[in-house]
Design brief:
Blueprint (H helix, E strand, L loop, with lengths): L7 E4 L14 H9 L3 E8 L5 E3 L6 H4 L10 H4 L14 H8 L5 E5 L7 H10 L6 E5 L2 H10 L5 E5 L2 H4 L5 H7 L5 H4 L3 E5 L6 H6 L4 E7 L2 H6 L6 E4 L1 H4 L1
Parallel strand pairs: 1-2, 1-9, 2-4, 4-5, 5-6, 6-7, 7-8, 8-9
Antiparallel strand pairs: 2-3
Amino acid sequence: MKTYSNRFFAHRGLHGDPNVIPENSMAAFHRAVTRGYGIEMDVRLTADGQAVLFHDDDLERLCGCTGTVETYTYEQLQLFPLHGSEEKIPLLKDVLQMVGGRVPLLIEIKTNGLDLSVCEETARLLDTYEGDYCIESFHPYVLYWFRRHRPLVPRGQLATDFIKDYPKVSLIQRILMQPLLTNLLSKPNFISFSHVHRNLPSFRFWKKNRTTFGWTFRSAEDVRACEKDFDYFIVENTFSS
């Protein structure tokens, strides 16, 4: 893992009033760059194979419509403003061009099931990007894909208290996910962990000799309480601004 000069990454960009600067928007990313924050962002693939920045599983909260990013083409998604603002769902390639290596990027890859097409498209775009970046995902197969196909790209396992935080997932799956045994296969370079669950044995074990990111911080007090646990801090706009 390369050491980054700034320990703070803006969660989904440095967003503000959602009606003006919504999360994962070009305005939020530009604001983070101008203030010197690293950027945490979420990548999904559209129906026509375009890598875009969007967090949620569906479009309801941010766009007020049904469906998912994956069921629309990029052109169709441009009909849906983000939270009623003038911002639209941006392309990863446009964000990379705008950032231009001025701040480091922490790119979370979102995928459903075993379709890893989003890994291929994201890696293709990043191959020619000259700035600092690393990828992360909750999905261990994403990390394994990068280990096999882009071994020099730093990769991180996202994790939390799966038993408490994922009640919709079967208990057996949560119990299997909790100890992060898939790390034996994917071999992450860093661990990105929910700071409120930092005392879990799984985090304490896997953080040894690895870089650590903590998420999501909403106060300076929380950061100070976790100084010894994390190397980098993913901070929410309410704290960042």
